[in-house]
């Protein structure tokens, strides 16, 4: 699909870019690795730091830095999206939970995802509607 100035179609935001913009509205210096960490925590609330490190394929010091940026107490760069809690039966394990601000951002990201349009429309000249050929939404078609 090529862009044409005489075309009545308009460019729509893709879900990944819209999600990053929503995260950067919280903190303009949000990195891609921090965004991935936050999304993993949204999907797996109560995840341990070790588990998050495995998912991110990151070293423990990198995971600690990401969690510090997403939580409170990291100076003026803290996002207050996540809080770390120590397990009552094992003081060595810390689990990650969303704060109210984090839940709000997760809801925003869910809304963006539900309203997503494909990055590439495989149909030649059809305007991008966010629906597959069968009429199902993009999000449900890929599920």
Automatic annotation (TrEMBL):
A GO MF label: DNA binding
| Residues in coiled coil | none
Region Disordered, as annotated, extends over 123-143
Q: Which domain of life, per UniProt?
A: Bacteria
Q: Which InterPro entries match?
A: WH-like_DNA-bd_sf, WH_DNA-bd_sf
Residue ranges with Low complexity bias: 132-143
**SUPFAM superfamilies recorded:** Winged helix' DNA-binding domain (SSF46785)
Protein's UniProt keywords contain DNA-binding: yes
Translocase in keyword set: no
Q: Which UniProt keywords apply?
A: DNA-binding
The protein here is known as: DNA-binding MarR family transcriptional regulator
